[in-house]
Amino acid sequence: MEYDGANGAYMISKKFLIIAIVISVIGHMAVIALSSILEIGRNPNMDRAFTVHFEEQAETSDNAEKAHFKVPPEKPYNNPENKMEDTVELGNKNTKYYSYLKQLKKKVDRRWSYPTESYARKEKGISVIKFSITEEGMLVDSYLIASSGYDSLDREALRVIQSVGPLTPLPKSFNLSRLNIIAKFQYRLAD
Asked: How many Cα neighbours within 13 Å face the side chain of 164?
């Protein structure tokens, strides 16, 4: 900096100003180049090449195919106040639990993706998962009740459900000790 006695102020020399501008331009170019390199390693069409979404749940028989997963028996649940339990589909819009389910579905959607190896092998199908939430918001059960036919798709659906915690406690107005939820995960490739 130089002192300009006539104006009584310090002036930044042109050298420092040019150096600052050059550093800024180089920094911005480095960030752009790095983001381009990261994009090259990713399949840009992959986001548009498949869909994963919830659909209305069809009735599922108790004898549904179990894939290669052991289905644990329902755990006995201590219900000291004799509150009720209810079972609902995650995508159900016509239920008194809709606002709670909507928040839960958003959490699931953010974590759910098509497994890379399944995408590469063009695997598609529907995994149906049942899980339960206690009134305190604890996930007490999660298991496969109908397989997509592919272990990697079924594992991803289970992984997502088991990773959504912590869950919001059930609203007192539900008067439930436990809410059982059935979620249908559909993996399909775009044509």
From this structure: 27
* DSSP at 115: -
Q: What is the DSSP letter of 57?
A: P
**Which regions of the chain does DSSP assign to beta strands (E)?**
2-4, 9-11, 50-54, 84-89, 125-134, 139-146, 176-189
Per-residue model confidence as pLDDT tens digits over 83-140: 789 999 998 899 999 999 999 999 998 888 889 899 899 999 999 999 999 999 999 8
Q: Please say whether the beta carbons of 54 and 181 come within 8 A.
A: no
Report d(CA 48, CA 191) in Å as an integer. 10
Joined together, the tokens standing for residue 64 give: 């549904």
pLDDT tens profile 3-51: 555 555 555 677 777 887 888 888 777 777 666 565 444 443 333 333 4
Residue pair 150/123 in contact by the 8 Å Cβ criterion: yes
Helix or strand (DSSP H, E) at 30: helix 14-40
CATH numbers and ranges of domains, the chain: 2-40 (no CATH), 50-189 (3.30.1150)
Dist CA 51 CA 54 (whole Å) = 10
Q: How far from the centroid of its chain's Cα atoms is residue 164's Cα?
A: 7
What pTM does this model have?
0.59
Q: What share of the chain is helix, strand, coil (3-state, %, to 5)?
A: 35, 25, 40
**What SS3 class is residue 46?**
helix
